[in-house]
Amino acid sequence: MEFNSNKRNFNKVTRQFDVLDSIRSEALFASMSSKNNDSMDGGRGRPLYDINGLGGDLGTNDDNINNDVSEIGRLEELKQQEADLARQLAAIRMEKLSALRSKPLTIGVIGFGRFGQFIAKTLGRHGKIVVTSRSDYTEIANGMGAEYVPLSEPETFLDKNLDVIILATSIVSFESTVKSLTPHLREHVAKRSKGPLLVDVLSVKEHARDILLNYLPEECDILCTHPMFGPDSGKNGWKNLNFVFEKTRVDKVVFDPNSCVDFERSNDRAFNEAYSYTESMDRIERFLSIWEEEGCRMVPLSCKSHDEYAANSQFITHLMGRILGAQGLQKTPIDTKGFESVLKLIDSTTADSFDLFYGLYKFNKKNSLSIIHQLQDAMDDVVDNLKILEKKDLEQQKVHVNVESDEKQRGARID
Ligand code: NAP
Asked: 387 C-alpha to center of ligand 1: Å?
């Protein structure tokens, strides 16, 4: 498909840039180290590449000078190649954008709460948005040019010709939401050759993956994602913010992180050339490209690895924010920068629902529980260290007092 081949060209040129970058660094490094070696000059302490001849012995170093000149020429050449590639890349990017815009996606969002609204606002710049939720969000949806359908009308929602459906409900209600959508999806795909692409944005990934694989009809492709940002951290745009994704099921083939099925590099030609596969990949790439275009740092990562990393980063952040928030800390007139960061952490973590925090704990229990235990141990260690120091201090004070009273007694006897 046009869009996929465009994207492949884009990646090819980007890889060429990487190669060029490493050649340039090597050339630079070689030129610098040759200069450094030359400057050793058998201990004469005079840089031989000093062609201005400030005391340099030019006559004996022609070879070095010639090397330097050819290295400088090489850099010029590489810079020229770099400029050519930049032109190619810009042209491919423009083509990619026009391919993307030629067929905008219709995106459905299930769960139009804090996060659903946040992403719909930006995604609406790239396609048509239809939302559904328990609460009536007609006004907010219309305000951002989207259409609202009540959650109690799943057929109406599915009949909107959705290319992609994003599941943005709370983690704790995810299973029940998917379970109740499934029979309607089955009916829907029975009338078509292909179902919509289902995307989740849950902050825990293995749970989402299991549920989606368990319930969804196999005609639906699955993309498990986690935008590692939210309405606070992404309020000024998504540039350089991490977007984690796993292409979980593409054209009925399930990604297995253990056997490392790589959809991009699969050697199975029959699989790669199937139209249905290409169609699936095209839709996934179109969807991912929206996030890419918004500046996200795209991170392909298995759901399993995501959950291990996230417990160590995201869960501990929320846990600390909640613990500090529970202490009722308040702004003072003499706040340090450090304390301002603490208050910011409390604000940003408690702005998210408690459901979200509970979901992070409950549905990544193995990792989150081990983080809680590590934190408790670390807290005990730090407090123990304080107590040990205090005990040493007291003992030293006692020794000091004893020495003083011994001296006093000795002094009294002498008197
Ligand atoms: P949340 O409290 O986790 O979820 C709120 C959403 O869930 C609302 O749309 C709500 O619908 C829906 N919901 C709650 N209970 C439901 C139920 N029993 N049945 C159907 N829908 C139900 O808050 P959130 O911040 O909006 O997060 C939504 C999802 O995005 C979560 O899975 C979260 O992990 C993920 N996420 C959030 C962030 C973030 O920064 N907040 C970042 C990345 C990913 P109604 O409003 O209609 O009641």
From this structure: 44
- Tell me which residues have their CB closer than 6 angstroms to ligand 1: 111-116, 133-135, 168-171, 173, 177, 201-203, 227, 230, 352-353, 355-356
Measure the CA–CA gap between 376 and 42, rounded to whole angstroms: 60
- Mean per-residue pLDDT of the chain: 86
- Contact between 192 and 251 under an 8 Å Cβ cutoff? The reply is no
- How do beta strands 164-167 and 197-200 pair? parallel
Q: How far apart are CA 179 and CA 198, in angstroms?
A: 13
**Chain position carrying tokens 């010709």:** 161
- Kindly give the interhelix angle for 365-414 and 354-362, rounded to the nearest 10 degrees: 90
Q: Give the span between the Cα atoms of 180 and 280, in whole angstroms.
A: 24
User: Which tens digits make up the pLDDT trace of 216-245?
Assistant: 999 999 999 999 999 999 999 999 999 999
d(CA 15, CA 190): 42
SS3 at position 314: helix
Residue whose tokens read 């992609």: 164
**What is the Cα–Cα distance from 226 to 249, expressed in whole angstroms?**
16
Could you tell me the distance, in angstroms and rounded to a whole number, from the CA of residue 298 to the centre of ligand 1? 23
Q: How far apart are CA 186 and CA 219, in angstroms?
A: 9
**Whole-angstrom Cα distance, residue 120 to residue 106?**
12
How confident is the model at residue 47, as a pLDDT?
A: 35
pLDDT in tens, 80-122: 999 999 999 999 988 888 888 888 999 999 999 999 999 999 9
Cut 0.85: pTM above it: no
Instruction: Report strand pairing: 297-300 vs 106-110.
Output: unpaired
